[in-house]
Description:
Shape: elongated
Distance between the termini: 4 Å
Radius of gyration: 13 Å
Strand content: 15-25%
Strand order of the largest sheet: 2-1-3
Helix content: 55-70%
Order of helices and strands: EEHHHHE
Amino acid sequence: MILKNKLTKEVLEIPYSEFRKKFAKEIQDAFESYRKTQLNKYSYNFRDDNSLEFNFYFELLWNFNHFGMSNWYLDRM
């Protein structure tokens, strides 16, 4: 995965497992924001958080970049 910092333009290339460890807080924040947005729009489509989580990780690049409030963004996976 290639991540870029919005402020310093620093580039970080790390494997997915390291990304999950290093950015756990940012991923959780992005997921909570995604969850709130989706439940407000389509609450009847989701029976539990598993389907929400699956959909979040299915489009991780877009969701992390748009729902997360991090200085880092995913450039490529």
